C-alpha cells in the first residue's frame, strides 16, 4: 500500500537539494517543451503521489527563473528565506483557512503578532489595522477601497447605499509615472480616466508638491492622493510631509504605495528617505520583496481601522463569531477562503528581528551604491537615477544609439555571465534596470556585475568600431 505521506518527505528532500546546488539562473526549456511536459491529457485513473511529484519536478525545473540567486537583478523580487519556506510548508500541511478566528485561532493570532511587529518596524501609528494580502496590487485595492468609502462619507454620501453610480465624482491624484499596480487597483474599484489627475513628474518619476497643490485646488469634490515610496525605476520618494499637508487642507485621503521602498523606514541609514510617511492614511507594502517571505505576501495598513473594516467587513449568519474571539482576518481583506499567510511572515520576522531587517536593507542599498559607482566609471554608460535605495538604472550616453546598445548589453550579460538582467523603457529611453534585492546579494555580487557590464560593453563598442572601419 502506498504511503500517502511519502510525497511530503520527497518534496522536503528535493527542496533542500534544490537550494544547495548550482542551477541555471535562466529557464532552459522552450514554450513548446514546457507545454509538452505539462499539457498532457487528463488520465482516467490516478497516479501514485511520489510519481506525480517526480513528474512535476521534471516538468517545472527547466522553466524556473532563478530569482533566489544572488546574481538575479532583473526585478524587485525577493529570494524566499528558507525559514519562511519551511513555515509556508507548514501552513500547507496544517491546511488552515485563515478566514475568521474560529476557522483557525492560530492563524488569526499569528497575524495579530505580525501586525504589531510591522507597525513597530515601519514606525506607523500603532493603532492602525493590517490586512494580509497577496501583494501590492491587492494592498492598494484594500487601502483605496477604504479611502473611497471614507472620502464619500466626509462628503455626506453613503457609499454602501448608493454605490459609485449614486455618488459624486472622486478625484484621484497621482504621478504620471506611478506604478501600474495603483492603476489596476483603481480600475477594479470602478475608477476610470475621468477620475484620474496624472501629475507631471520629474526625471525621477516623482510629482512635486506644488504640482499636487495646484491640481487639487483646481477641482471640487471628494479627493484621494497616491504617493510613492520607492519609485519602481528610480527608487525615489515623494515629499510625504508636504503631500500630507496638502491632502489635509483638501480633506483628502493620502495613500502611500510603498511596495518595497517603505522598508527604508526599518533601517536607520535610509529612514530619512521616507520621512513623513507616517502622516498618510494608508500604506501598501510587500513581504515577498525585501522581507524575503515566500510568494505571495503583502500587507495593507490603514490608520483608521473603522474605515478599513467598513470597506472589507463580511457578515453572514453562519459566520458565528463570538465576543471572546480574537482577530477576524477577513475584516481587513477581501474573501473568506484564505491561505494562512501569517505563519510565514511570523517565522521570517522572528528569524530576522529588528536588526536583521535593517541589515538586509542596508546591505542591498550599499551594494547598489557600489554598482552605481563602478558603472559611472565606464565610458559611454551613465547611471540615470540618483541612487538612494536599491535601484540602479543604466543608460547609454550616445543618444543616437543608446537604446539599441543597451538592449545588446543586456543580451550579452544574460548569455555569457551567469546573470539575470532585464531592460525597461523609461522616459522614452531603453535602460538597464537593476534591482538589488535577493537575500544573498552582497557588495561582491554588485562588483562582479559591474565588471561584467564593463567587459560586455567594451566588446559591444569594439564590435561597433570594427563594423564601421
Low-confidence stretches: none
Looking at the structure, what is the overall shape?
globular
- Strands ordered across the widest β-sheet: 1-7-6-5-4-2-3
Structural class, please?
alpha/beta
Mean pLDDT figure: 95
Structure description:
With 469 residues, this protein is an alpha/beta fold. The chain is built from 14 helices and eleven strands. The strands form two sheets. The chain has a seven-stranded mixed β-sheet with strand order 1-7-6-5-4-2-3, sandwiched between helices. It has a four-stranded antiparallel β-sheet with strand order 8-9-11-10. Helix 8 links the parallel strand 2 and strand 3 (196-199). It is globular and about 70 Å long. The N and C termini lie far apart (74 Å).
Which helices and strands occur, and which strands form pairs?
Blueprint: H1 6-20, H2 31-38, H3 49-60, H4 82-94, H5 105-121, E1 129-133, H6 136-154, H7 159-162, E2 171-175, H8 180-188, E3 196-199, H9 209-217, E4 223-228, H10 240-249, E5 253-257, E6 282-286, E7 298-302, H11 305-312, H12 342-376, E8 381-383, E9 391-396, H13 402-416, E10 422-426, E11 429-435, H14 443-468
Parallel strand pairs: 2-3, 2-4, 4-5, 5-6
Antiparallel strand pairs: 1-7, 6-7, 8-9, 9-11, 10-11
Helix pairs in contact: 1-3, 4-12, 5-12, 6-8, 6-11, 9-10, 12-14, 13-14
Keywords:
469 residues; alpha/beta; seven-stranded mixed sheet; four-stranded antiparallel sheet; 14 helices; 11 strands; globular
